Every structure is written in C-alpha cells, then in structure tokens.
Amino acid sequence: MTKTVPQTEEITPAPGAAQQDKERAKGGGLLGLVTANLRTSGIYIAFVAIVALFAVLTGGDSLSPDNLTNMVLQYSYILVLAIGMVIVIIAGHIDLSVGSVVALTGAVSAVLVIQQGMPYWVGIVAALAVGIAVGAWHGLWVAYVGIPAFIVTLAGMLLFRGLTLQVLDNVSLSPFPREYGRIATGFLNGLLGGYGYDAFTLLIGAVAVAGYAVSGWRARTARIRYDQPVESLDLFLLKVVAVGVVVMAFAWQLAHSRGLPIVLIVLAVLVLVYGLVTTRTVFGRQVYAIGGNLPAAMLSGVKVKKVNFWIFVNMGFLAAIAGIIYSSRMNGAQPAAGEMFELDAIAAAFIGGAAVTGGVGTVVGAMVGGLIMAVMTNGMQLMGIEQQVQMVVKGLVLLLAVAFDVYNKRRAGASR
C-alpha cells in the first residue's frame, strides 16, 4: 500500500539583524545606509547640525570668510594631533603627553632659530627629531618594558613640560623669521584677480572634489566586483554632489578672504597619507587587529611590540609637526604652550567615533570630531560665552560621544 507524503512548504529562516542591515544597505535606501552605518553617518549629521546651529546663533558670522580662515589657522594643530591620537586609541592606548611635546618641540626650534640665529629649517628639523625621539622613548617603555601607556605618557607629560621650562629658562622667545611664520600664517593666492576672490583656491577645491568623486567611484566599483553591498547609484551621486557643494562653498569663502592657507595643505596631505596608511597597508590592519583583539593578533603572527613602538614614534612625529605649526602661529615659544591640547585631541578622536576599548576609529572621523570641537568653541567665542561655560559644554559633548559608543556596543551584543 502506497502512502502519500504531504507536501510541505519550504520555510526560510528570518535573517538576523546584521543580515537585514546588509540587505537594506545593498538595496540602496537612505534609511538602510544610515542604519547599517549609524556610527559613521551620525557624526556627519551632528557636524552639519552644529554648523547650522551656530550659523543661526551668530547671525552668520561663524561662516564668514575671515572667520573660517581664522578657524583653520587656530585649530589646525589640534587636528594634526587628532590624526596621531586616533591611531593610538585604535590600538587600545592613550597619550597624555602630546601637549607637553608640542611645547618642547616649539621651544627647541625657538632656541636654535631665535636665540642661536640658525636658519629656520634647522629649527624645523630639530623639532621633528625631538618629537621622534620622544615617541621612541614612550614606545620603548610601552612596547618593550610593558608599562601601560597611560602611566608612561602621564610621566611624559610632566617630564617634557619640565624640560620645556628648562630649555626656555622659564621665559618666552620671539619672534621667528618671516619664513618660519609662513608655515602657519602664509597663504597661496597666486591667481588673485580683479574680481575680489582668489581663483587658485577655487581651483584647488574643484580638484579636491574631483579626486573625491574618482576615489569614491573606484571604491564602489571594487565593492561591486567582489559582490559587496553598496548604496544605489542615485544615492552615491547625491553624496558626491553634497560633498562637492560643501567643499566648494568652503573654498568660495576662503577665496573671498586671504586665499588658501598653507597649513590647510599640510593638513590635507597628512589626512590623505594617514587615511591610506590606516586602510590600505599591513601596518594599518595590524593596528586595528591589536586594538580589536590582542590575543588573536598575537596568534596571527602580528609583531605587537614592534607595531606599538612605531605607533608612539608616529605620535611623537605628529606632535612635533603640531608644535612647529603652533609656534609658527604664535610667532614664538612659551613655557605654557600646548596646555590641554592632549584633551582636545582625545576628545576629537572619541567624538569622531573611536571606541574606548580600541579597534574602532578612522582618521576622517577624528577630523570631523575635531571640527565639531572647533566649530563649537569658535561659535561660543563669537557669542561671548564665558570660558568656564565653554568647558562645561565641551565636557558634556565628550561624555555623550562616549555614552553613544557604549550604547552601540550593548545594542550590538544584545542583537547577537
């Protein structure tokens, strides 16, 4: 006797949260893209909102050509420090000494150039050498002796502040030669015509937008080739247009002031180089591996001590660049230079999306975090808000950024 087996409908299990995010992102919807990349998208949304808020509160003064130029000059050294700090934080460390290193490198340069009468480039080379030596000192204790970076750099903060006072003999030195001062206060405006704006600045802005579009298109094509999720073509074009509008509006304002700041070119080069280092090199992947899962990185053959050593050497190098820029802008060296710079750099990294536990963060995110701090500080200064209130606001913003990171981790853990 033949038994008839009833046909059953095939049941497909419901995709998990991560798979749903991937499918929404692959579908190209704006909501899906934001959901899948909340951490990255949120910081850009916050930045635009803060810029718009202070533009309204200051009656548009915060977006004036002269104010934007001054903001670039005033906060460039903090952004340089943020590049190095985010790499340190990604690896699961912290550096509390960068403000003191900024002061020491500027002091060494001032003594050689101002006091000893040497050429300005000698001061630059000496400052870079001191910064690299300081980074190697920290890297030796952290990587090879095994002392936590918090303790090593806390000691370094005191040690190098004391050396700064010793080098300067507790007095300020000024002024630097004109060539040295142009590092932080010089401008490129070679095509300044009779129309009231600098065409060279607009040309550089257009080249930057074109480079961003080409780079984004190549990255999108590569992801499609490997069958990875991407946003829709319409959304990609919208993103390129939005970035282009923002960049060209910024270039337009700079072109109506004094032209393209030299320090902005230095900063752009550093962002491009370190963006590639952290995303396209073996060293960058090893930094993320160490911060994300140290035991797994060690088992994978990553030379943890060597990588940690060079992380701090790099931080010292960037602190020296920041010291050169700061002393150039101040046209001299002061014993109290660089105070609280380490906190601004750390805040920029965390606000930009770096994780407290390491393994997460980007150079671009740190730049946006630094710009948020710069816009807030500059806007509150234009509004005449007292210094103590500014410190309270910045402290609350940092706390909320870290709380957002903790919330994301708990949410991700609950969804597994």
TrEMBL record:
Region described as Disordered: spans on this chain: 1-23
Transmembrane segments: 42-60, 72-91, 96-114, 120-140, 147-168, 195-214, 235-254, 260-277, 307-326, 346-377
Recorded GO MF terms: transmembrane transporter activity
Membrane topology per record: Multi-pass membrane protein
Biased composition (Polar residues): 1-10
InterPro entries registered for this protein in UniProt: ABC_transp_permease
Subcellular location: Cell membrane
Keywords from the UniProt entry: Cell inner membrane, Cell membrane, Membrane, Sugar transport, Transmembrane, Transmembrane helix, Transport
Full protein name: Xylose transport system permease protein XylH
Organism for this UniProt entry: Blastococcus xanthinilyticus
Lineage of the species this protein comes from: Bacteria, Bacillati, Actinomycetota, Actinomycetes, Geodermatophilales
